[in-house]
Amino acid sequence: MLSYIIRRLLGVIPVMLVVGIFVFSLLHLAPGDPAAIIAGDNATPESIAKIRTNLGLDRPLLEQFATWGWSTLKGDLGVSMFSGIPVTTLVEQRMGPTISLTITTLIVAVTIAVTLGVLAAWKAGSLLDRA
């Protein structure tokens, strides 16, 4: 059983690598310059260049991908451009409500499923059993 779990976990690595490359590529193929969008309409070329440098967009793509991947593996998801708060802090703030919604939904789903399963077993061959 342990070897099965290890094989499955090792199988996740290439999948995550392909997904990471795909998402990274889509972000870079999107139209528009992120630095120009962040700087706004009245930005000077110097301010756009400064933003590109701060975001690391002036480095080669392979270096950008390696930096992004290594930071992600370390748990450093960066800082939100909208709020200026670290992304991990934002995720932590929303984790409590997300978990409570998940548990509530799971309880409701299991209750309905068990009730319908018991009714279907009790009324074997009826319309409820075949539905």
Overall shape: it is elongated
Q: Number of helical runs?
A: 6
* Number of beta-strand segments: 0
The residue fraction in helices comes out at: over 70%
Low-confidence stretches: none
Mean pLDDT: 90
Going by helix content, strand content and strand pairing, the class is mainly alpha
Largest beta-sheet characterization: none
| SS strand fraction | under 5%
What is the CA-based Rg, rounded? 24 Å
The termini sit apart by 36 Å
Query: What is the H/E order?
Result: HHHHHH
Keywords:
131 residues, 6 helices, mainly alpha, elongated
Explain what this protein looks like in three dimensions.
The protein has 131 residues and is mostly helical. The protein has a domain at 78-131. 76% of the residues lie in helices and 0% in strands. The protein has six helices and no strands. The longest helix has 36 residues, at 87-122. The chain is elongated, with a radius of gyration of 24 Å. The two termini are 36 Å apart. The model has no long low-confidence stretch (mean pLDDT 90).
Question: Summed up, what is this model?
Answer:
This protein has 131 residues and is mainly alpha-helical. It has a domain of 54 residues. It is built from six helices and no strands.
Topology:
Layout: H1 2-29, H2 34-39, H3 45-55, H4 61-74, H5 87-122, H6 127-130
